[in-house]
């Protein structure tokens, strides 16, 4: 199994440029891996193209769509949730279709809630809050951010907690 290091990033953070070999390694592994590890690898490839300095929305979307399709075939909830999260992030960060992002984040939240992964649930709430905030749905954004805060506090995730409080402060201006 490949160490996929499930991301704890949200829509408002980016990682640095990945090591040059990371994309090649992921592509190589995606050919030999079997589901659900292959779905996880495809999701990570989408994330690399989304969050690093590479930032290629088209390629990120191809891998997220492929991950979603394969996850649905095997009814792999975590894989479907992560693919929806990536698709929402693509829409909100790179494409700027926040209505689609809101739908993807809502689906990711629903699916992550079934997995019990509190970190991903928190990020899904934060991502959904961001989409709603940009769509000027301020009361709904605040509700989503407050739910994210509860999860981030419980997990001791001070980095994402600080960022979420920053977005809450924008609503209170």
Q: Indicate the radius of gyration in whole angstroms.
A: 15 Å
Distance between the termini: 47 Å
Could you give a short account of the major beta sheet? none
Taken from the alpha-carbon principal axes, the silhouette is globular
Run of helices and strands: HHHHHHHH
Helix content: over 70%
The amount of beta strand, in percent, is under 5%
Q: Which ranges are low-confidence, i.e. pLDDT below 50, for 5 or more consecutive residues?
A: 1-9, 11-16
Q: Tell me the number of helical segments per DSSP (H or I, 4 or more residues long).
A: 8
Helix-strand category: mainly alpha
DSSP E strands, number: 0
Mean model confidence by pLDDT = 84
Q: Any overview of this molecule?
A:
The protein contains eight helices and no strands. It is mainly α and 173 residues long. The chain has helices at 20-32, 37-51, 57-74, 77-95, 98-115, 118-134, 138-155, 158-171.
Secondary-structure map with pairings?
Blueprint: H1 20-32, H2 37-51, H3 57-74, H4 77-95, H5 98-115, H6 118-134, H7 138-155, H8 158-171
Helix pairs in contact: 1-2, 2-3, 2-4, 3-4, 4-5, 5-6, 6-7, 6-8, 7-8
Features:
globular; 8 helices; 0% strand; 173 residues; disordered N terminus; mainly alpha
Short précis:
With 173 residues, this protein is an all-alpha fold.
């Amino acid at each position: 199994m490949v160490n996929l290091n499930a991301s704890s990033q949200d829509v408002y953070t980016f990682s640095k440029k990945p090591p040059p070999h990371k994309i090649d390694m992921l592509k190589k592994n995606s050919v030999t891996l079997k589901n659900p590890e292959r779905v996880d690898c495809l999701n990570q490839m989408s994330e690399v193209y989304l969050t690093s300095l590479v930032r290629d929305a088209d390629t990120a979307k191809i891998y997220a769509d492929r991950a979603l399709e394969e996850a649905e075939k095997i009814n792999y909830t975590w894989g479907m949730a992560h693919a929806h999260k990536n698709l929402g992030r693509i829409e909100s960060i790179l494409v700027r279709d926040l209505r689609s992002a809101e739908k993807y984040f809502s689906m990711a939240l629903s699916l992550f809630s079934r997995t019990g992964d509190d970190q991903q649930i928190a990020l899904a709430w934060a991502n959904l809050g961001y989409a709603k905030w940009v769509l000027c749905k301020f009361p709904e954004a605040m509700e989503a951010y407050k739910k994210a805060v509860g999860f981030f506090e419980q997990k001791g995730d001070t980095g994402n907690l600080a960022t979420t409080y920053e977005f809450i402060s924008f609503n209170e201006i």
